[in-house]
Specification:
Helix 4 packs parallel to helix 6. The termini are far apart. The protein is globular. The chain is an alpha/beta fold. Strands 4-5-6-7 form a 4-stranded parallel β-sheet. The chain has a 3-stranded antiparallel β-sheet with strand order 2-1-3.
Length: 240
């Protein structure tokens, strides 16, 4: 976000900033912004209060009831809708449920496109819960939250959910517990009752070191190669 914001100031154009960031980072494929308008992410908390700004949402001590985009009436980039409708495979996640995943699913045009596309829609559920967003959430809670943000009359648009069922090492569990995070419960029966097909297995990657503002941090992540081997064959399923 900081990188794109800096490029926007340098180039004078949000769209140009996206293009330049993809070029500088040697991005494979294409990246489309959800909208070219200046919008802000907001949240309604459990006590009914409202806050604006992604950083404030994640730091809230109260559970999140709903998120919204302000202003609500904005144009979705046409390329986003086309990419969804024409895709062979759509993968949602992993990532912060309220501040990374849901904002892209809020617009009616995006939800309609997900229902229209012939591509399988696969949701990769997070390995761990996240403090400030999904404390105590199971896999089914993640999906229910997504569906709670559907427009009236919209049916479910997720075909598959990918779940990690491999228990993380004990030292990781303790470290995450100190951050109010725990492994996401794989409540498979509840997911199947919601009409989802479940792909469960060991999708954990070994020790992953990331750079943060506080220095190096050891974290849990999905194994990208394992995910690709399992998910990629689905791309022909819904179209055939």
């Amino acid at each position: 976000n900081i990188f794109i914001a800096a490029l926007t100031r340098i180039t004078g154009s949000f769209e140009r900033a996206f293009e330049e960031s993809c070029r500088v980072l040697s991005t494979r494929g294409r990246v489309f912004p959800l909208t070219r308008k200046n919008v802000r992410l907001g949240a309604v908390l459990s006590d009914g209060s409202r806050i604006l700004g992604e950083a404030l949402i994640s730091k809230s001590s109260l559970p999140i009831r709903k998120i919204f985009i302000d202003p609500p009436d904005f144009d979705v980039t046409p390329e986003v809708v086309s990419a969804i409708v024409d895709a062979e495979l759509i993968v949602i996640g992993p990532g912060s449920l309220y501040t990374s995943i849901l904002p892209n699913l809020l617009p009616e045009k995006c939800q309609s496109a997900l229902l229209r596309t012939k591509a399988p829609v696969v949701y990769i559920c997070n390995v761990m819960t996240q403090a400030g967003e999904t404390v105590g959430f199971s896999a089914a809670d993640h999906v229910r939250t997504i569906y709670d943000h559907r427009r009236p009359g919209m049916r479910g648009f997720i075909d598959w959910i990918v779940l990690n069922t491999q228990s993380p090492p004990a030292d990781y569990i303790e470290k995450y517990r100190q951050e109010r995070a725990t492994p996401v419960k794989a409540d498979i029966d509840a997911l199947r009752q919601m009409g989802l097909r479940v792909m469960a297995g060991d999708f954990l990657k070994g020790d992953v070191v990331v750079e943060t503002a506080e220095g190096q941090k050891h974290v849990l992540r999905h194994d990208a190669e394992k995910l690709v081997r399992k998910i990629l064959p689905l791309r022909l399923e819904k179209q055939s």
